[in-house]
């Protein structure tokens, strides 16, 4: 029998293996041809290849779950490289800088900022305050204090100042550039606005971000001047929730983690977490408990979104999973599970908690039960119906609130169907994940086209969600070569390029990861992965595993108790695949070392430069 091209397998065919005879590994093999089993040999060879390919793809995709958690989530957003030996602190200089900003801000400008904040950004902080009109009274009192000479501020004054300055920072962060230019026609003086691009007469998003960070720093300094550790006050919680709405926790990882733990202590001390209504409650007590409930849900949302190796102490777990309540409601057919939420903060937390239910399997590295994924699917359907059908819902009273709820639901649905695809090989899982990705892109693009709503895209959940999505599809395109995913990646890249520079430095870090995967794709294609006995021994997979190790070793770091010595890292022995060693592991090692020297993953955790980028 003549063949135009001789095909040879690396393994004996299934028929010869069963007969326990020597196979020449041709496709079909000589033994099967002689015995008339040519057709069966060909079919089993194809089936074996498909099965082997499926197993290899499954192993690669499950490996991805660890990469997504350690690199995309922890490395990009929750890691900060701080060396105390090279960190210098001048508290007097920081206080003086805060005072300079207080002198820079005029009375008229402060009221303009507060007006814009109340009109456009209410969903980010209204729930933390019992009466919005109090803000204007606080601002009037602030200027009375500022106009008095030789006045000594009390702890109460500093807390009120910090609350106002956190709102100023929030407003500057989300304000359109055109409006910012009219509010601040002149840029701040160079001695306090150190990192601005002074050559430009116009405000840029880069300068806007820096101004917002300076205002944020001013708010934090005034919290310190209130001696927050010795003088607990509920306004500390309010300030923290406001600062979290513009990504402060992911820019100042260590400081914000410590501050959040103080917030938890204050919340317990002030009984913020105890908001159960009682018959004996007075009207004032009922209103106070409603505000406490909103603050507590907001704090738990912040706590979950910040949780990671550098913040092992969490308190959001005090609220049980929504799935437990969902199971209870299924036993009560007369209960309306589609009833409207009492507040945006409660709705926001419930949606976030579904992400927590999924994320626990990424952290543990375990396979989720199918019934859990199905329960989360039911809950996302319920919330989607609530958002789309309740036009007059008090929880979704603004366009910003509706955008955040819709965006989070689509992001959680994306993660859900990605897990269906990875763990249960449900083919529709990939297609549905692509569908929800396109929904997310459409939401962002809609805001870009409607210039009035562009500010919605600056919210931290946008860049956090798209970081996971963009890096996953860059990885999947590398291992699958899918043309559909390649086109999707181009759409995602174009959308990311139109996001605000105020999402720096994480936006730059995301682009670095994506460009790195494009280079890894070339390396993947140049080395035939089919020739490897264990796909996870491929140089590309080794590089990705090293990326994971770079961040996961933070969990096993221990401080040295000996003066002058470096931090201690416990060594872990990693067993090598003997077959990989025999097949030229030294060559693989050189490829890995060369790539990592040129495109180091620790780029993500280097200190920020003076211009605010990586």
Automatic annotation (TrEMBL):
Coiled coil: none annotated. It holds the Pfam family Cep3. It comes from the Eukaryota. One of its GO terms (molecular function) is DNA-binding transcription factor activity, RNA polymerase II-specific. Residues 12-41 form the Zn(2)-C6 fungal-type domain. This is Zn(2)-C6 fungal-type domain-containing protein. It comes from Torulaspora globosa.
